[in-house]
Amino acid sequence: MAAQLRVTYKKSSIGYSQRQKDTIRSLGLKRLGQTVDVPDNLAIRGMVHHVQHLVVVVETPADAAVPPAPPPVAPPDGADA
Hints:
By secondary structure, this protein is of the alpha+beta class. The protein has helices at 18-26, 42-50; strands spanning 4-9, 35-39, 55-60. The radius of gyration is 19 Å and the shape is elongated.
């Protein structure tokens, strides 16, 4: 499994059951277009499967969770510190 899932709320839950609305809120989604990163486990995958018609899911690899640090920048030659 991937380290995390990136879940984006794409379709309104108006007209769907209260259970599906509660699932959207439990995933941490509050408004359309919002994206959250959630841990990849069986419970979360079950929740996403339950509302798969309302969200878009992208698996993010384990090494993509922490962006790499930029390389240090050396001062130009002859510059006074």
